[in-house]
Amino acid sequence: MKRRILLHLLFWLAFWFVYAYTYSRYDGNFWKYAATEGFQMPSRMVATYLSFWCFERFSGFGEQKTWWAFGGAAAANLLGGLLNRVVKMVHVVPVYFPTSTFTFWGYMVTYDVFDCVLASCTALTARLYFRQQVLKKREALLYAEKLNAELLALKGQIHPHFLFNTINNIYALARRKSDKTAPVALKLASLLRYILYESAKPSVRLEQEVQNLRDYVELEKLRFDEDRLSVEMTTDIDDPGRQITPLLLLPLVENAFKHGAGEKRSEAWVKINIVLKNNVLQCDIKNAKEKDQVANAQGIGLRNVRRQLELLYSGRHEFHIADSGDVFSAHIRIEL
User: What is the per-residue pLDDT across 26-52, written as a single tens digit (0 to 9) for each?
Assistant: First the structure.
């Protein structure tokens, strides 16, 4: 409220000064015109604030009410012009221009009315500008909140489906008293910690994302016999600390295991290659598949990745998928 009052005061002071300075060019007597314009300012303010009230009261309630708003504003400016004529007749002309003749209903009525119109329209323009800025900020905030909610929903779709299989594998290892039980449980804990906590951050170091992928790959390999699945993961990263949105690449790796190796009857393989050079990240993920198996290019995981790229790296990414019969591949290029 204090800020609004200050802005209104500054506006009227500026208006007052401009009018006084403009008219003082006739004879160089600034203070005389400062006084005369000061007596006329209340009439302009009445016209302006009555116009504000009309627009606040009637605009936005249908076409008929909008005409009421414009009509009320016109009446307010007419009233302001007449008040200005009264002020001039009673005080301004007799005191400051005693040699001048004054006619109340002369052509100068139109001048005084449009004098009020200029003040009210200028003030209304400033008011609409500041209101638009507030609405733009609010719209930007709502849009950011919507994107954040959508991203959280996308991240929430990524991980649950393999969790029970991993727990069952750990249980089987424990039953056999395998030495792999503790390391596998540790990898699962690390993966879940990353998903639950790191994914809530807007970005993480690329080395964290890569390590998360390695943990995921090791857990998925538990589902397959060693002679049935071959996994090759290579990286070439010149800046491990470069920031990237978390869980962006995981859906592609999930897709390669779930719809590729998971449905391949023999000689299943997955190849993952991640390269970061000069702030450009390229990720290629390929997996074997049955020739008669139809790849679902519109699956949840792939749609998830595509949508995150559109939201977070708009205009700075490429995303391509290809199905060559017995090989399915996905390629991402991002300018980080």
Answer: 777 888 888 888 888 888 888 888 888
Within its chain, how far is the Cα of 175 from the centroid?
Answer: 51
In angstroms, the CA 10 to CA 200 distance is 46
* Residue 272 host element (H or E): strand 268-277
Dihedral sign from CA coordinates of 300, 302, 308, 311: negative
Residue appearing with tokens 């920031």 = 243
Sheet holding 268-277, edge to edge: 229-237, 268-277, 280-288, 327-335, 317-323
Secondary structure (H, E, C), 34-77: HHHHHHHHHHHHHHHHHHHHHHHHHCCCCHHHHHHHHHHHHHHH
Residue type, 41: M
Confidence band (pLDDT; 50, 70, 90) for 56? confident
**Is it the case that residue 298 has pLDDT exceeding 70?**
no
CA torsion 275-280-281-284 (nearest 10°) is -70
What's the token pair of residue 164?
């029970």
Return the closest-CA partner of residue 255 out of 211, 319, 298.
298
Longest dimension (CA), the chain: 116
Phi, psi values for residue 205, rounded to 5°: -70, 145
Residues whose CB falls within 8 Å of the CB of residue 80, separated by 6 or more in sequence, listed in order: 43, 44, 46, 47, 48, 50, 112, 113, 116, 120
Residue pair 281/334 in contact by the 8 Å Cβ criterion: yes
Q: What angle do CA 221, 223, 225 make, to 5 degrees?
A: 80
pLDDT band (50, 70, 90) for residue 277: very high
Domains of the chain plus CATH, in order, are: 2-141 (no CATH), 157-335 (3.30.565.10)
Distance set, CA 139 to CA 126, 132, 134, 143 (Å) = 20, 10, 9, 6
Task: Provide the CB-side half-sphere exposure for 149 (13 A, CA).
Answer: 6
> Is 169 a residue whose pLDDT tops 70?
yes
Token digits of residue 161: 């489906």
- Helix (H, G, I), strand (E, B), or coil: what is residue 99? coil
